[in-house]
């Protein structure tokens, strides 16, 4: 579900210049096709988490998958910018129902001690879908149909398979079986989640991480083409940050649990990202490859740890709401990042100012990470 759900979003950055030309859009307007699904995750994530805490994560994720499937298929019929955006929002609404509830259903399948390792598994699958979409859309998928619509239809196929498999094979975990709760009890859970200051710290870090991630991955193809790369080469270089994220998402949570520490992976990762953005301003094409390796490890090591922390910080009956809150707020960063960078590109003709913004916000996130309580086994909650 993580693989198939995110791939239709990340097939857009390599085709941004085609979308811009076909529909006569500015860079900022074209970036909405990438940011639209992420916006819907921000809007739908928290309500979807509340619903999952009430009626069960399996149903909510499955309904979201059906909506995603419909939206991706409809994108293959879009004939104007407005219809493409409308269908993109439908797809994004389904993504907002499904994705934030994956930590909820995982918490019923594995123990809290292993939730980070399990989060690493589906995070790596998500990254594989994103990396594949960035890497092969232009050289392999687009030439099959030579159209945007055909490319969108091709990326709907994995989602159709995932949706059918979900409803056929996945069962609700027994420990997450639906309980009869009053509206007042649901409201109490929501108030407890909203009053948890550490959850807001975590949400702020995730907002900045998503801001960085969306700008770094969404606009790197354009940045590299401005440095002289072909569209095909720019997509392949950018995808490196996602490919190296697959093993990073699998093994860094394991290292975190062996060390019994979480915080160093957050503040250390953010400092690494700030340095990466500073280097990217003047980096040459040959050195872009190792830069993407380092930044990809830093970016994607933090994601499964952040996904796991609400499970460690919040009682099990409110995990869906807590995860929905963190992911909803985080995705706001993923929306505004591409829009700001697109506007900067329209005004200046380059992305240098965007990289300076990334340096600043990464430094802020590193400072916030120091404020989080340590939930690892060695430091307790100190």
Describe, in plain words, how this protein is organized in 3D:
By secondary structure, the chain is mostly helical. It has a single domain (2-170, 183-369), classed as Up-down Bundle (Growth Hormone, Chain: A), CATH 1.20.1250. It is 80% helix and 0% strand. It has 17 helices and no strands. The chain has helices at 2-10, 16-22, 27-55, 57-75, 81-98, 102-109, 115-145, 148-154, 157-169, 183-194, 197-226, 231-243, 245-259, 263-280, 285-313, 319-348, 352-369. Helix 3 (27-55) runs antiparallel to helix 4, helix 3 (27-55) runs parallel beside helix 5 (81-98) and helix 7 (115-145) runs antiparallel to helix 8 (148-154). The longest helix is centred in the middle third of the chain and has 31 residues, at 115-145. The protein is globular, with a radius of gyration of 20 Å. The model is unreliable at 178-185 (pLDDT under 50).
**Computed CA radius of gyration, to the nearest angstrom:** 20 Å
Total number of β-strand segments?
A: 0
Instruction: Give the amount of beta strand, in percent.
Output: under 5%
Largest sheet: none
User: Number of DSSP helices?
Assistant: 17
What do the pLDDT scores average to?
87
What's the CATH class, please? Answer: Mainly Alpha
CATH topology: Growth Hormone, Chain: A
* Protein structure class: mainly alpha
Distance between the termini: 36 Å
Which parts are unreliable, with pLDDT below 50 for 5 consecutive residues or more?
Answer: 178-185
CATH H-level superfamily? MFS general substrate transporter like domains
Shape: globular
Succession of helices and strands: HHHHHHHHHHHHHHHHH
CATH structural architecture: Up-down Bundle
Number of domains: 1
Q: Classify the helix fraction into a percent range.
A: over 70%
């Amino acid at each position: 579900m993580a693989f198939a759900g995110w791939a239709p979003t990340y097939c857009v950055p390599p085709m941004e210049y085609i979308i811009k030309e076909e529909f006569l859009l500015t860079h900022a307007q074209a970036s909405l096709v990438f940011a639209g699904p992420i916006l819907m995750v921000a809007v739908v994530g928290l309500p979807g988490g509340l619903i999952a805490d009430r009626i069960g994560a399996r149903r909510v994720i499955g309904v979201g998958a059906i909506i995603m499937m419909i939206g991706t298929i409809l994108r293959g019929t879009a004939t104007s910018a407005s219809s493409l955006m409308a269908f993109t929002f439908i797809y994004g609404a389904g993504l907002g129902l499904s994705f934030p509830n994956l930590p909820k259903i995982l918490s019923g399948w594995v123990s809290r001690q292993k939730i980070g390792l399990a989060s690493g598994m589906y995070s790596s699958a998500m990254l594989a879908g994103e990396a594949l979409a960035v890497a092969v859309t232009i050289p392999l998928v687009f030439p099959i149909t030579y159209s945007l619509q055909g490319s969108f239809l091709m990326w709907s196929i994995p989602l159709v398979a995932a949706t059918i498999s979900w409803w056929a094979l996945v069962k609700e975990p027994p420990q997450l079986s639906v309980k009869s709760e009053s509206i007042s009890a649901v409201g109490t859970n929501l108030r407890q989640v909203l009053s948890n200051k550490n959850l807001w710290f975590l949400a702020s870090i995730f907002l900045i991480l998503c801001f960085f991630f969306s700008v770094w991955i969404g606009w790197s193809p354009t940045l590299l083409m401005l440095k002289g790369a072909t569209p095909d080469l720019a997509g392949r270089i950018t995808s490196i940050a996602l490919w190296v994220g697959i093993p990073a998402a699998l093994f860094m949570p394991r290292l975190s649990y062996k060390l019994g520490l979480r915080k160093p992976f957050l503040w250390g990762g953010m400092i690494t990202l700030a340095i990466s953005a500073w280097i990217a301003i003047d980096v040459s094409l040959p050195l872009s490859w190792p830069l993407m390796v380092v930044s990809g490890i830093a970016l994607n090591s933090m994601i499964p740890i952040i996904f796991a922390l609400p499970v460690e910080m919040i009682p099990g009956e409110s995990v869906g709401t807590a995860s929905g809150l963190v992911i909803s707020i985080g995705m706001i960063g993923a929306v505004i990042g591409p829009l700001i960078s697109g506007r900067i590109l329209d005004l200046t003709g380059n992305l240098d100012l965007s990289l300076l913004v990334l340096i600043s916000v990464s430094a802020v996130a590193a400072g916030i990470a120091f404020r989080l309580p340590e939930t690892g086994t060695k430091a307790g909650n100190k």
